[in-house]
Design brief:
The complex is a heterotrimer.
Chain A (H helix, E strand, L loop, with lengths): L2 H19 L2 H20 L7 H31 L1 H7 L4 H30 L8 H26 L5 H28 L8 H26 L2
Chain B lengths: L7 H25 L2
Chain C lengths: L6 H28 L14 H28 L2 H33 L7 H22 L3 H32 L15 H41 L1
Helix pairs in contact in C: 1-6, 2-3, 2-4, 2-5, 2-6, 3-4, 3-5, 3-6, 4-5
Classes of the chains: A mainly alpha, B mainly alpha, C mainly alpha.
Chain lengths: 226, 34, 232
Amino acid sequence: MPEAVRSALAIAGKDLRLEFRTRTALLSAFVFAVLTLLVFNFSRDQSLISTADLAPSALWITVAFGAVVAMNRAFIIEREQGAFDALLLAPVPRGAIYWGKFLANLAFVGLVEALTLPLFVLFFNVPLGRALPGLLATLVLATIGFVAVGTILSAMVVRTRFAELMLPVLILPFMVPPLIGAVQVTARLLGGRPLTEVLGWLRLLVTYDVVFVTLCTLAFTAVVDE
Amino acid sequence: MPELPQNAPYMVAAYVVTAVILVGYAVSLWVRSR
Amino acid sequence: MTPLPSAGRVIRAGRLLTILGLLGMALVYVLALQFTPVEARQGMAQKIFYVHAPAAWGALIAFILVGVASILYLWLHDPRLDLFAEASAEVGLAFSAVMLTTGPIWGKPVWGTWWTWDARLTLTLFLFLLFLGYLTLRAAVREPVERARFSAVLGIMALVLVPFIHLSVYLFRTLHPQPILLKPSRPSLPPEMLRTLLTSMGVYTLLYLGFVTLRYGIGLRRAVALREADDA
């Protein structure tokens, strides 16, 4: 296995183990997701707004904010441990560092989503059935988009004074295109529309992912090097 | 011929707001450049 | 180290251009209000167009230049490019503020709603948010070289983002037929209106140049002062 890939996986592994030793981050993201779903459900007038209308929005707001909370926690923990600076001293290609963090964040956010999705299905009586593969694909694609951008932005704000506030402020505009696509696809799929109808949106998601993962991998060097 | 809508106040508001923002910014730059 | 040009001269030039720009704006106001015919369907409110549309162009130009300066900075590492990007971002914020305020003021009498998620307004909202984010990031990072690098990365990311925003809004609109709004049309403007619009665009460009030069001068002076303090 090429050296860079091995380094990336090692970094990812280290980050994830850091996360599990401090389970608070995972727990807080999960609690946040549950809270959001609850509020969505209790805030609507049942006779006016059907679950079907509300479900896609509720899911994606939960996922989007949950992802931001998760990524925020991940970098803050790392900063507190002082591990980041030590990592930079090692002769590891910067792209590999990015991929390590990217993969770790992806796994972490993915885990939060995996725990949230069943709750979502439960609370909103969502008829999954045939929509499931498309829904999972959308979740993966959108999450890749969020995390690609979130990872590099976190690296930039981690040492600033208001890091926890900075990340949401900076990342919000970047989350919108994948978010719009994801909500559109989810709404159609849950409404029983075939996958072929949402190909345009899925293409948008894939393009976004490819472009931003590439851009962020290349730009990461500028962020961490002197 | 249909009547002309009487919406001049909106126009005035927009022109005033624009002037306030642009002149205000100019003044702020001027002061900062002293 | 890269020699920095004399800040004093830049500031003077910026002030001159700004004054000329503001005088130009006064001219545009008179032109639009007194010497341009009133549009029959929309009434007087249509004249907001002459201050609204050029602001949009100004914001877009400012944005693109931030992106270009960012790319060049990461390539050439010239601090002047970073200072220019900072200036352009601030000016862009001012222009998008004009657009975001005049847009709804125009929309209410003409379309009946304060806001529509049409391509132009949505895009300007995003430009505003991106400018704000860019300037917020700059305010949060203390060390100048680190700040320049981070801002440049964000500037490039923002530039790449814009086509995607445009695409999503476009896809959304084509798949969601919106009720036909009385959009202020621009296929064929009567000559006097076109003249006013073009004059306004010219003046806004002049104003952009004045603002950006002056703001660049301010940043330049601060950078020189910091460098002298370091050398001392």
